[in-house]
Design brief:
mainly alpha
Length: about 80
């Protein structure tokens, strides 16, 4: 297995677990800040999945995968 693929998968799982934990805590009535955090987590998880898939299928290289992930994290967390 590839180290980058393993790390991206690990990140996806951590994002998902955090999302589930917040969702359980909130139930149906999440406060606005929790809702925003859930949106960011979901967006990050999806973006990580896309990068993981592109890299696994060799549509992008290692450097491009890492650069894309860094850029997405910066944009989502700063927004």
């Amino acid at each position: 297995r590839d180290e980058v693929l393993d790390k991206l998968h690990e990140i996806m799982m951590a994002l998902f677990m955090e999302y589930v934990e917040i969702s359980k805590t909130c139930g149906r009535g999440c406060p606005p800040e929790a809702t925003r955090k859930l949106e960011k987590l979901a967006t990050l998880e999806l973006a990580t999945y896309v990068i993981h898939t592109l890299f696994r299928r060799q549509k992008i290289g290692r450097e491009a995968a890492v650069a894309a992930f860094d850029k997405i994290v910066d944009e989502i967390l700063s927004g």
